[in-house]
Amino acid sequence: MAGIIVIEDEQRIRELVVGVLAEAGYEVDAEATALVGLQRIVERRPDLVILDLGLPDLDGAELLKMIRAVTDVPIIVATARSAEREMIAALDAGADDYLVKPFSVEQLVARVRAVLRRVGAGASEGRLVVGGLVVDRAAREATLDGRRLRLSPKEFDLLAYLAERPGEVVTKRQLLAEVWREPYGGSEKTVDVHLSWLRRKLGESAAERRYLQTVFGVGVKLVDPRDR
Ligand code: CA
Fold it and tell me: Per the CATH hierarchy, to which homologous superfamily does domain 3-122 belong?
């Protein structure tokens, strides 16, 4: 059973989140202030932290840095839509995912499950295989037909994200949110540019696309060319 610590000062939300997650089968602790929350994280070593960025005693982003200084526990930050900049700063400071208030119960559970799955998958089965392409997330290396690809960190993240979802169309907006951690801002041009670099490193041209396939007007997907 995965352990979760919720740090949220609003009692109503705190109780709701704790109730929902307990019902979903998690072991949940909750704290109302940043400093007690940090102490609890150090003591309990949870599998996941849900952190409200608007806390009374300490700026959420500051707390996030303090947590990151002691542990790499996955963190989901929660904030109001109006506090978008704060959330982006939190993602830059090492948060793994985010929830925008008001969020639904289903959204909360789905995000928690996805983050835990991602972390678990990263630890146990770090290698993703799509046709002749092998992406080793633990070693941060990718090979194509046994040949090592020389990728920038962002290109690697992009490739790994797509390789986690073979055959699934991913939108550029989704890539900006998940790979670039820019859920609202960012330019789709950035994604286009990185996709074209990645395409070139995979030895593909616009005329002859193999692994990376653009779905016009929707996004991009990574496929095993032998499946076509
Ligand atoms: Ca709050």
Answer: Response regulator (3.40.50.2300)
